[in-house]
Amino acid sequence: MMTNQTHDFTLAEATARVRIDELAPVSRFSLRVRPAQAATLGRALGLDLPDRIGRIAEAQGRTALCLGPDEWLICAPEAARDAIVAAARKAYEATPHSLTEISDREISYRISGPAAQELLTIACPRDLDLLAPGCAVRTVFDTVQVVLWRDGPQDFRLDVWRSFAPHVRALLEIGQAELAAGL
């Protein structure tokens, strides 16, 4: 005899409170440059490099996130990849830096809806009330290093290394189901 377990909730109920979507690929770069030269290199790349950790700057469809005193994450449409590489190469002699393409290393999930913040708290130790919309931070989700973006009050992005994505997605889906069940 086989046991069959049923639940009182549906996937539709789970996604009504919080939605998890994998986002389309983008060009990503890890940029290291001395803070004194950040403004010069930013102009060469077509955007201001923010000077405070967690701050974001956007221009021409490109986004720069300050991850550390001399470290930025640059995201742009895939079509902008070659232009960014060419601009960095041209600026290198006057402004030494390290620009490494990491596009294939990560994927991004959008977590949105009225229970998005609650879902993220299942495995993120950060106080998300302190993460203002329009900011992002490097943190952990369970034991996985991630970049967490807060795009709006109920709208987050989670950049995850591709090798850890199945683990993170599974945790998010378990949490989503638990929220729908009222656990």
UniProtKB/TrEMBL annotation:
<protein>
    <submittedName>
        <fullName>Sarcosine oxidase subunit gamma</fullName>
    </submittedName>
</protein>
<dbReference type="Pfam" id="PF04268">
    <property type="entry name" value="SoxG"/>
</dbReference>
<dbReference type="InterPro" id="IPR027266">
    <property type="entry name" value="TrmE/GcvT-like"/>
</dbReference>
<dbReference type="InterPro" id="IPR007375">
    <property type="entry name" value="SoxG"/>
</dbReference>
